[in-house]
Design goal:
By secondary structure, this protein is an alpha/beta fold. The longest helix has 27 residues, at 385-411. The strands form three sheets. An eight-stranded mixed β-sheet has the order 3-10-9-8-7-4-5-6, with helices on both faces. It has a four-stranded antiparallel β-sheet with strand order 11-12-14-13, with helices on one face. A two-stranded antiparallel sheet has the order 1-2. It has helices at 20-33, 46-53, 57-69, 118-121, 147-159, 175-189, 204-215, 230-237, 255-261, 284-297, 355-365, 371-382, 385-411, 437-446, 476-489; strands spanning 73-76, 80-83, 198-201, 221-226, 242-249, 252-253, 267-270, 300-304, 329-334, 346-349, 417-419, 426-430, 452-453, 466-470. Helix 10 links the parallel strand 7 and strand 8 (300-304). It has 15 helices and 14 strands. Pyridoxal-5'-phosphate binds at residues 138, 203-205, 229, 271, 276, 304, 306, 334, 336, 341, 346. The site of pyridoxal-5'-phosphate (PLP) has 13 residues, from helix 7.
């Protein structure tokens, strides 16, 4: 470490790592910002500074050039180089209030103010994410994804890329992909829409954020399922909306209670095909009740259809959007479960009259989703890989779910009470009320098993204890082993 004696400048400490010119430029910027070098103050010549520091002149020249270009330094013939006179000068803050870069994040300092709603946006602690082992929720069978096909399609578009693929894309997404999705939704989910109504998003969570930004003002009330999807709370909190907890039973959201608690709420967020986390399918009567309330109250319904591709028993359930005659439903879909979550592609189906609001909200948030994966995904669907993959995964997940249920029956018959429909990629089971599911989840993480506790999905006082077990990315042997480890943790 080399030091320049005080008197010329406050001491400069050069580290052994990192380019010298950058360290110097950084030092000057901070010394100027903190008031240790004042406007108009002369700084040493490059030759003198290089000599003092025992380094070659080149990095000092580069640093000075950079600082000139950024407006920190200026030179006058005959007067040498000075700190720019235009820099506003304030007395250096008292040392205790200074926040050096490295210490700024330290817990020793009092927290600096951020937006008040950040507290509501924060998700509950997620220790279960620390384990990659069996039953990580929300992960599809990654080793069954057709990687070779996908990389061929991606490189096809990366190689033959025209300038239209490199500029900002349409806010609503790649038109041919939108068309393909609209056809798919009409066939499989009975969703009624034309291509103009479909907006490609960067996943369902992003879709929820766009809905919240387009439809809610701070203080607006929004129905949310209790228990429900914690990230939906986060999306609502981000715009300052106030959640109204509406209980869920075996028929899905209890609409009558919602009407009693907040008859004029602006919006209802629901997962009718496969309620997250309890797994119920919303009954036909409740669906109609919900649609009638929305029409009466002039409110919106956000239908999160995150994993509807997978149903293993019972009758197929069509989307709520298809029943809607008053254009009250905004349909949210995602490719995270059918393909893979890091793809970050999903979609919204938006009532026609809301399109300008949604386009404005989307434009303000992120303009558009990345175009290259959209083009590859379009080919993936049109060439039949998408339908084939879903068919295969449906069989695979049905077998995995059956294996998980069998393992629970064999190893934990009395401890876990499985609830919900035969659908999706996760299974929820209730524990005896006296068992602490968060503590269990922590123990499971240490044992290499990822158990998502149920109780943090509740926001009210009354909470059930339980576990959410993802089986999408766990093969059958690992399922049995995981259940045995869970038994040990219990
Ligand atoms: C109910 C629900 N909605 C939305 C999502 C988010 O999906 P995405 O990855 O597309 O943001 C999930 C993910 O697990 C989910 O469980």
């Amino acid at each position: 470490m080399k030091r320049l004696p005080t008197g010329l400048l406050p001491s400069i400490a050069l580290e052994d790592s990192g380019p010298i010119y950058q360290q110097l430029a950084d030092w000057f910027r901070r010394a100027i910002a903190e008031g240790r070098l004042r406007p108009g103050q002369r700084v040493p010549s490059t030759r003198a500074l290089a000599g003092e520091l025992g380094v070659s002149r080149l990095p000092v020249l580069s640093a000075y050039e950079l600082l000139h270009a950024e407006g920190y330094l200026e030179s006058f013939s005959g007067a040498g180089t000075c700190v720019a006179a235009a820099i506003p000068h304030e007395a250096p803050p008292a040392p205790t209030r200074r926040l050096p870069r490295v210490v700024a994040a330290s817990a020793a300092l009092a927290p600096r103010p951020v937006a008040a709603r950040v507290a509501a946006m924060a998700s509950p602690p997620q220790t279960w994410l620390k384990s990659q082992g069996a039953f990580r929720v929300g992960v599809p069978a990654l080793d069954h994804f057709p990687h070779a096909v996908w990389s061929r399609l991606l490189s096809r578009h990366a190689r033959h890329v025209g300038s239209d693929a490199l500029i900002y894309g349409d806010t609503s997404g790649h038109a041919p992909l939108r068309e393909a999705i609209v056809e798919y939704l009409a066939t499989v989910r009975a969703v009624h829409a034309d291509t103009a109504q479909l907006m490609i998003t960067s996943g369902a969570q992003h879709g929820l954020q766009i809905c919240a930004h387009a439809l809610l003002d701070p203080g607006d009330r929004a129905w949310v399922e209790e228990p429900g999807y914690p990230s939906a709370h986060q999306a609502l909190a981000a715009v300052g909306a106030v959640p109204v907890l509406v209980p869920v039973d075996a028929d899905g959201m209890d609409v009558a209670t919602g009407v009693r608690r907040a008859p004029t709420a602006r919006l209802a967020y629901v997962t009718p095909s496969h309620q997250f986390p309890l797994g119920a399918t919303m009954s036909a009567a409740r669906r109609i009740e919900l649609l009638q309330w929305a029409a009466r109250a002039g409110s919106w319904i956000v239908e999160d259809d995150y994993d509807s591709e997978y149903r293993y028993g019972g009758r197929p359930i069509t989307a709520l959007q298809g029943l809607d005659t008053d254009a009250r439903v905004i349909y949210v879909g995602t490719f995270s479960k059918v393909l893979f979550p890091a793809l970050r592609l999903g979609y919204l189906v938006v009532p026609k009259d809301l399109l300008p609001a949604f386009r404005a909200a989307r434009d303000a948030l992120d303009t558009c989703s990345p175009m290259l994966p959209q083009r590859a995904l379009h080919d993936f669907i049109r060439e039949g890989h998408f339908a084939r993959h879903i068919r295969r995964m449906r069989m695979l997940y049905a077998a995995r779910r059956a294996a998980l249920q069998a393992a629970i029956r064999q190893h934990l018959p009395d401890a876990l009470h499985v609830v919900g429909a035969e659908a999706g990629m996760q299974l929820t089971a209730l524990l005896a009320p006296e068992l602490d599911d968060i503590a269990l989840s922590r123990r499971a993480t240490q044992a290499g098993v990822s158990i998502r506790p149920l109780s943090p999905c509740y926001r009210g006082e009354t909470r059930c204890s339980g576990v959410i077990l993802g089986y999408g990315n766990v093969d059958e042997d690992a399922i049995e082993e995981g259940v045995k480890r869970l038994r040990e943790c219990l």
